[in-house]
Design brief:
alpha/beta, 11 helices, 17% strand
């Protein structure tokens, strides 16, 4: 999604997209001993480590305006054309952002150019049917394409077969990305939650209303619980989110 798109859709981003400390632990561990970090597609500043020198890159003025006081300095630039010399940073990180870039492979090459280590937190779309909102309510239409043309294959090629770390999503995840509410289905009825998830934000209004109405009816009738009640006993769930690390 381009900067102008996030200028339209990201106005309440900070309301639901806050850092989850358990995901942050996995990301910060992947940064290793990096003292200088570039955060590309930085948004409002979630997951930026406070114990290192951080520079942020974010093309959306609306997103930059929501960065809190004291956040890392933020540059108006895009992943595909980073305004830094080769090897400027110990590490570069990209958190749930590379699928929005206009040239995903080009952006990954740029991360590798400016940093000795690249850390990417992203979702593997081959896991799409593991998520009830996709399998039962077709939140993706059309669904993400299968390998080898899918996002994950592109990401792996761009990072030369990186090390991969599974990140189970806790049931009370504080960062409201698409699958964060897997055990809290009523959250998907809330307009502010939908507004800050790009899949919903890009959806036609009529289709979004129909999906929301179907889910609401299933929650009220108990149909959702009959199909998915086993989830209510789980503390965390592997839905295909991964931290990838490449040197």
């Amino acid at each position: 999604m381009s900067a102008p798109a996030y200028d339209r859709f990201g106005r309440s981003y900070a309301a639901t997209r806050t850092e989850d400390p358990r995901i942050a632990t996995a990301i910060h561990a992947a940064l290793g001993n990096a003292a200088s970090v570039l955060n590309v597609g930085a948004g409002t500043g979630s997951y930026e480590p406070s114990d290192r020198s951080v520079t942020a890159v974010e093309p959306s003025a609306v997103m930059r305006a929501q960065r809190p006081p004291g956040a890392a300095p933020c540059v108006d630039a895009s992943a595909e054309a980073l305004p830094f010399p080769d090897g400027s940073f110990d590490a570069a990180m990209a958190i749930l952002t590379d699928h929005h870039w206009s040239d995903r492979e080009g952006g990954l090459r740029e991360l590798r150019r400016v940093a000795r280590r690249v850390v990417v937190f992203q979702w593997n779309p081959t896991w799409v049917d593991r998520f009830w909102l996709a399998a039962q309510y077709a939140v993706f239409a059309p669904p993400p394409p299968p390998p080898p043309a899918d996002w994950w294959s592109v990401l792996r090629a761009g990072l030369d077969e990186p090390r991969e770390v599974s990140v189970p999503i806790p049931h009370d995840c504080r960062d409201g990305f698409l699958m964060a509410f897997w055990r809290r289905p009523e959250a998907y009825l809330e307009p502010v939650v939908q507004a800050n998830i790009s899949v919903f934000a890009r959806m036609a209004a009529e289709r979004r209303a129909a999906l929301t109405g179907t889910l609401r009816a299933d929650l009220e009738s108990g149909a959702w619980a009959l199909r998915n009640g086993w989830l209510l006993e789980r503390e965390a769930l592997d839905l295909g989110y991964r931290v990838l690390v490449a040197e």
